[in-house]
Amino acid sequence: MKLILLGPPGAGKGTQAKMLTEEFGIPQISTGDILRAAVKEGTPMGIKAKGFMDSGALVPDEVVIGIVTERLQKEDCNSGFILDGFPRTVPQADALADNLKGLDKDLDAVVSLEVDVEALVERLTGRRTCKECGRGYHIAFDPSRTEGVCDACGGELFQRDDDQEETIRKRLDVYNEQTSPLTDYYAAAGLLKSLDGMQEIGTVQQQMLEVLKAV
Ligand code: ADP
Ligand code: ADP
Ligand code: ZN
Question: Is 180 exposed, middle or buried (0-12, 13-18, 19+ CB in 10 A)?
Fold first, then answer.
């Protein structure tokens, strides 16, 4: 299964991707997670990316294209992958298409999660993320069993710096300007499947699996 999860920040891409990795035994490739790890380690790429991320802007295309190109060559991608948060611009989508052509791989589907703006803000302000494994929670909609502690690995939960209302609004503007054209892009390619992302996590998950069984 070679899949892209598309949708604005807070749509539920990471939440659904985690479930799909278990269901299909394929890796989640989250450019946001890879960039945050680079920032934490203080690598040259992380230092370059940090300012963009803190302000809610996109990291330059060549940086994220480089990350994904390298990642897709790893052996664990042979049976498939879930791209979460990439592509986010038309040049990124074009680069991905070239890349997959070179690797002799085709995308199976692009699933778009559709969620209202105010719900996105509520989801992102209440999001908590595990420091160790990156799993996401929500203080009201998907709380951990013990407050502040990851169910999966016992790691400490924290609130991302960019999950503050002002930065969230900026990220949503960036999404509308730079990423939303990708729905037409993938519809034209005959790959787009749209899901109502306003439903409960478990319902979205069920519908996701139904859609993917049909591709
Ligand atoms: P969210 O889960 O809220 O959609 P991500 O974790 O995917 O956020 O991304 C966090 C930040 O990392 C983005 O605001 C952006 O600065 C950077 N980033 C992640 N993926 C990309 C990408 N494909 N292109 C450019 N920047 C990216
Ligand atoms: P994305 O990766 O698209 O930015 P996440 O998967 O991190 O989004 O989800 C954003 C926040 O919303 C998280 O706190 C998550 O627990 C919560 N969430 C995800 N899906 C749903 C849903 N269907 N209903 C309510 N809250 C959700
Ligand atoms: Zn964890």
Answer: middle
